[in-house]
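Justification of computing resources. Each target in the renewal requires a structure prediction run like the one illustrated here; the chain below, 618 residues long, is used simply to show the kind of job we budget for.
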Amino acid sequence: MAPTTVHTAIRPGRLRRLRRGAAGALATALLGTAAALLPAVPAHAAAPAQLVYVANSDSDSVTVYDPATGAKVADVMVGSQPRSVALSPDGTQAYVTDYASGAITVIDTATNTAVDAFAVGAAPTPVAFSPDGAHAYVGLTGSPGQVAVIDTATRTVTATVPVGGQPFALQVRPDGGRVYVADFVKNVVEVIDTATNTLAATIAEPAGARSPTGLAVSPDGASVYVTNYNSRNVTVIDAGSYLVTALVPVGAQPFGVAVTPDGGSVYVANMSSGSVSVLDAATNTVTATVPVGVRPFGVTADPEGGAVYVANNTSNTVSTISTATNTVTATVSAGLAPFGLAVSKPAPPKVTGLAPGHGPVAGSTTITLTGSHLSGTTAVSFDGTPAANVTVVDDSTVTAAAPAHAAGTVDVTLSARGRTVPAGQYTYEDPAPVLSGLAPATGPAAGGTAVTLTGSHFTGATAVNFGTVPATSFTVVDDSTITATAPAAAAAGPVDVSVTTPAGTSATDRYTYTKDTAKLTANPLLLSIGPGQLSVNLNLSAALTDTTTGKAIPGATVTFKVGATTVCTAVTNAAGTASCTGPCPVAAVLLNLGYTATYAGDPAHEAATATAGLIRIG
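Resulting structure tokens:
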């Protein structure tokens, strides 16, 4: 039988075992009380990524707090003397063992309110869920000691397994096939077959190990760790063979125990020493001792690593231990006499916005990611390349500088608390081209001038325009040089030149078209004038040529005059020739003996004139 001091410390009073009907009535009353006494809690803009639930034995409550900030989220009133709390595998509910009420209070974790309470038997202390959440197992430390099996769908006790003495701790193997029970009075570890709800084995504690109080199973299910309250040590059991493999000395009156998610370390709360011993699971040796509060009872590990939480029963606090440094990094207030505790799996980070969604290939653009549960962000990556200057602004905002990357659209990811989630897409763009110079900056309206464009970011150019007219041809020499052939212009004057690439169109530079010079060639005309003839019909012609290009100018109007007399006008044909016939007074012919062809010019050509003789024969 365990010493009286132990009973007093852990189990404050003998309780008459409740009959099922009486317990049910008490549970109904309990639920009403919990709902009535639940304090109003300020609304949060967003639910915390992770919560810690602490059963406060002397204040009949469960404190819920955010470990990231230390802020209290809720105080949930439950039954009398709550001892342990366990979270369902899906995280939607918490079961709290109400020791003096003989009941389980169910907390809805979405609202952190008590939503149900049901009877389980006398003095429930430890509780654990099966991996699939279909069952829960509760250690009943009243006389006789039992483990109650609960159907979580109906919240009813479907079986009880006798285990003898006080089952102070229990845990389900990760595969769900066995439940290990620390039997304080019988000084054994009992193994329950969950398929038959019968005892599969009883493992005796070795010599020198007394009063098993806490129990934890390694994540791989290979080892069981048992704290021995009255012998200052921890028993290590091989779960396959049921053989004791080590007995590890720790502090005074070891109570709770937890294994880190990687299975590498075991944390043991030493109640009378006010400390936590850290065991190396590979060597079964103590590698560190961490001072915490007064009389630490429960201990639990963050399911994703990084922290261990310890309930300090007399200090009314919870200590957070960093598993990286094995130092206390935070201490928060709980209720009166915190006993057991549980921590939820952190909610995954979620990114709902990324802005801007594009930027240059050179990188360095500051990107803002928005969403929820971003406070633990450690990295932002663009197509696998880490961003620089990752800054957590708050739980909903992170900024980062995009790294350099080739042009194109890439996936962005964000990593927080060991999880990597999609964060959207980002498009890398080549910079828009920059045009800084033209040489030469002038040329004839006929086009054909070879112009060299200088600037930057010309690679990949798809167009060079003179005004709205594409260059006759162009060649990208390199990223800063293009040669282009100026197209013909409809009129002389300045036009804007621009370069277009997939990244955009450059600002413009000015190119000025000048008028082409024109040459008009008139042909001499032989004519015969009879005696007494007063007028004569003249067949006149002239050829108009663009002297810049050497090509004929079609469609131009040419006026033919003899002195002051306009004989006729004609439009040049495709060959640039204008021909017409008109009457002219003989007196004007004899006076001038020649004619003048005149072209007035157009927006692209200078004016031109020519003269030719009128040669009289006969």
